[in-house]
Design brief:
Elements (H helix, E strand, L loop, with lengths): L11 E2 L2 E2 L1 E2 L10 H14 L9 H20 L8 E4 L2 H16 L5 E5 L8 H10 L2 E5 L9 H7 L4 E7 L11 H10 L3 E5 L11 H4 L3 E5 L10 E5 L1 H6 L10 E4 L4 E3 L13 H17 L1 H20 L4 E3 L9 E7 L5 E2 L1 H10 L2 E2 L1 E3 L4 H7 L4 E5 L6 H18 L1
Parallel strand pairs: 3-16, 5-6, 5-7, 7-8, 8-9
Antiparallel strand pairs: 1-2, 4-10, 9-10, 11-12, 13-14, 14-15, 14-18, 17-18
Helix pairs in contact: 1-9, 2-9, 3-4, 10-13, 11-13
Bound molecules: ligand C6P.
Length: about 400
């Protein structure tokens, strides 16, 4: 699907054609996104919301149109609910500080799951330390899906927030977030969905999903680095305090008292990444022009094909094989005597053959510990990958296995 739009895919790595299967870490950028960054700095760069002059007004308009586009992408009720951040990690830290400040007290509980990325564990852990709250963990079943029955048992009148990944960055599994949200709301508990790995692969409707918060990064959806989103329902964002002070987030400042700006600016202290938001709006246009459903279907078929090829290899163990996934497949390779071949060694030999995959704990150590391995090899697809990429990857993997056995 439109490989020619991504200039980096013409690069050679170790004199081989690049096969890029590390899309869960970050995606490559189409020419329209690269051009948007050059255009912004070449033609209308100026600080937003500050100047009466022409360039500042152009920059402001493009930044706010991008916010509108993001709101449409996830079907938010209004663009006031879209806070631009530096990325998923920044969004989660901001939420943990703001929500934590206002809503969490000694003895309260926050629920996350066993398969979370560190960005959806550590900010909550830090909050718990600050406030004397307790972090509870939804366990996994043997098939590596979330144990929803156990989750029901964890919910109590002490629970203040549930924060779970929509799609696991390690396993690629799609978690039952609809059910989790329904169950949490029955008890009046708010839910944050970590959409870092789902927004790029699945059509997202926050109103239908009814999540209270959604966080994601532009760079995992063909957009630039350094830009992310914290979506929150307006009634929550109105209630929550800002976490960073500075320009832009204020209404009036005096030494006696400062009043805060309206949404979403209350949460956006300082000069925002308006070049990033503009470039991201071009990435959204790009994906929408192909069709979100189309992209999701194509990537799903490719990920299924990739998993099928891996499952055929007798010395490869695929995690959560056969489960409904989006984008990523994790596996390990075993020797004939049952010994694990270190994922790092597999990754290095794939790289020598021009194939980029990620190896290690994928910033999800509690899950990797649970799997009882030092890490996994993860292949993750994007819209520009092809069946041929998968075939090259599998052939390179077979070669690596022969060398390492
Ligand atoms: N996962 C991966 O290779 P940032 O780094 O802020 O853009 O995203 C953090 C993050 C949060 N949640 C999930 C589910 C994620 O997958 C990620 C980023 C990358 O898996 C880099 S560690």
């Amino acid at each position: 699907m439109r490989r020619e739009d991504f200039p980096i895919l013409n690069e050679k790595v170790h004199e081989r054609a690049l096969v890029y299967l590390d899309n869960a870490a970050t995606t490559q950028k189409p020419q329209v996104v690269i051009d948007a960054i050059v255009e912004a700095y070449s033609h209308w760069n100026a600080n937003v919301h500050r100047g009466v002059h022409h360039l500042s007004q152009v920059a402001t308009q493009k930044h706010e149109e991008a916010r509108e586009k993001v709101a449409q992408l996830i079907h938010a009720q209004s663009s006031e609910e879209i806070i631009f951040t530096k990325g998923t990690t920044d969004s989660l830290n901001m939420l943990a500080r703001s929500f934590g400040e206002a809503m969490v007290n000694d003895g309260d509980e926050i629920i996350v799951s066993q398969l979370e990325h560190h960005s959806n564990i550590v900010p909550w852990q830090m909050l718990c330390e600050r406030k004397g709250a307790v972090l509870k963990v939804i366990p996994l079943r043997d098939d590596l899906t979330l144990d929803v029955e156990a989750f029901k048992g964890l919910l109590s009148e002490k629970t203040r927030l549930v924060s779970v990944a929509h799609v696991s960055n390690v396993l690629g599994i799609i978690n039952p977030v609809e059910e989790i949200i329904r169950l949490a709301h029955e008890k009046g508990v708010a839910v944050c969905v970590d959409g870092a790995q789902s927004v790029p692969h699945l059509a997202m409707d926050v109103q239908q999903l009814d999540c209270d918060f959604l966080v994601f990064s532009a760079h995992k959806m063909y957009g630039p680095t350094g830009l992310g989103v914290l979506y929150g329902k307006k009634e929550w964002l109105d209630k929550l305090p800002p976490v960073e002070g500075g320009g832009e987030m204020i209404e009036h400042v005096s030494f006696e008292k400062t009043t805060y700006n309206v949404l979403p600016y209350k949460f956006e202290a300082g000069t925002p990444n308006y070049v990033g938001s503009y470039a991201f709006s071009k990435a959204i246009d790009y994906v929408q022009a192909i069709g979100l459903e189309e992209v999701a279907k194509y990537e799903h078929e490719l990920a299924v094909y990739l998993e099928e090829q891996l499952v055929l290899l007798s010395n490869v163990r695929v995690y959560a094989a056969g489960q409904e996934k989006a984008g990523a497949v994790s596996f390990n390779v075993y020797k004939a005597d049952g010994g694990l071949i270190h994922p790092f060694d597999v990754g290095v030999l794939l790289d020598r053959q021009g194939v980029a995959v990620r190896t290690g704990h994928h910033c999800a150590e509690p899950l990797i510990d649970y799997l009882g391995v030092p890490g996994t090899v993860r292949a993750s697809v994007g819209l520009y990958n092809t069946k041929e990429d998968v075939d090259v990857f599998v052939a390179a993997l077979k070669k690596a296995i022969m060398m390492l056995e």
